[in-house]
Each structure stands twice: as structure tokens, then as C-alpha cells.
């Protein structure tokens, strides 16, 4: 099992190539993960928000750790590609707790994690030293198991609009450098969609850069040109799916028609995908 995890982790790490980014359409359950893998994705990432919503909890460290990791295990068992898990702030208040969560994620079959530096109980970010301790704990836990876990350290300065906008880039680069030194492999800066800032982040961070994409972001080929190494859809794919649920329901309850249902995955195809997983 450890050798298989190690091989998957090595593969996941190799997929982070600046200018040739790993594109992640984040899944939230087994069926969505199977669809993503069947579409040709090189890896599957979970979205903490989508997972929480599908299990009846709000996002933001509100979902029970056991239920979240159980979902990761189900996804990892269902797809043939590496899985990286969004574990929010680590499901724990202490570095030791984060280490425990990482061990459970590895036991579940995932070979990558996202770790946020945003505090779950307010708009602020964790102290840099505190976040570095949590990242070091995650790295140690993986090293003890013998798996080169891909640690994606999220910097929420832009997402949460922290500090003076004029100083935000410099603050982000300082955090990124500290997180890299603490054991992060990839730096994730959500909330940035303008090309000059993305280019400055690529130039200023000594690690592969992950950006959060969506309708207002540059297309993947442009992000590749800028040197981005990982592109994530985050919770937007789950949101789009739930948007379809709302539109189809409003249509059938209103006009009584079913046009919103066009383009759905046929029952036999989806059933077979899940059965194969």
C-alpha cells in the first residue's frame, strides 16, 4: 500500500509543471470524481465546500473530520488517478492535530492536501509562524509514513482582501517563501484573476503556483503562458451542478417543462462509471 501511495504521490508531484499546468475540476462525491477521471483528468482534487454541502454541512471547518476523510477514501478507491484532498485548515487546532489528519488522509489513499492559512473563526489569517508549524507537522507526518505527500499551501491574502492592497503582493510573497521553507510543495493563491498579478506571483514564488479559475479568470492557455503550474476550479463546479438543480426544479414547478435536463449524463453511463470505480 505504501509503495502504491508513494508512486501516486511522485506522479502527482510530476504533474505540476509551470507553463503546462495540472488542471483540476474539483469533485465532491464519488460520481463527480468518476466523471472527472473518465473525462481524462490526470488527477482528482476534492473541494471542501462541495464535500461539505453534499454531506449537509456548511463550508469553513464545519464538517466533521471523520466524515470528510471517509469521503476522500471513497473517492480515492473509485478513481485510477492520484487524489489530492482539500482538508481546509487541517481539521485541527494544533500542529499535532494536523499531523494526525494527514496520516488519516494518507491511510484513505490520497497523496496530496490543501492547507489554508485563513482562520476558520474570523476574517484574519493565522500568524505566519503558526501556519509554518502546521505545515512542518504535515510534512513530518508524511515523511514518517514514507510518502512524498504533495502539500499545497494556500495563501488567503487576496481571497480575504487582507491588508493594504498596495502591500498585498509583498505580503503574499513573504508568506509563500515561509511556507515553502516549512515544507510546502505548491503555493495556492486564490482570489487573483488579473494577469499582471498572476505573472508577478509566478516570478516571485520559488515553487509551482496554483490559481483558482472560474468565469472571470483567464482561460487555461493564458494561465499556462503566464507560467502557472496548477489550475483549480474549487467549489465552482459543484456550484454549477447545484445551479442546474435549481434551474430544472424552478422550470418544472413553473412552466412544467424539462429543457434544463438536456445534456445530462445518461443513466446507464453514470451507473457504469460508478460501478467500475
From TrEMBL:
Alphabetical keyword list: Lyase
Species, as recorded: Micromonospora cathayae
Record PANTHER family: CARBOXYPHOSPHONOENOLPYRUVATE PHOSPHONOMUTASE-LIKE PROTEIN (AFU_ORTHOLOGUE AFUA_5G07230), PHOSPHOENOLPYRUVATE CARBOXYLASE
Designated name of the protein: Isocitrate lyase/phosphoenolpyruvate mutase family protein
Gene Ontology MF: a single term: lyase activity
One Pfam family cited in the UniProt record for this chain: PEP_mutase
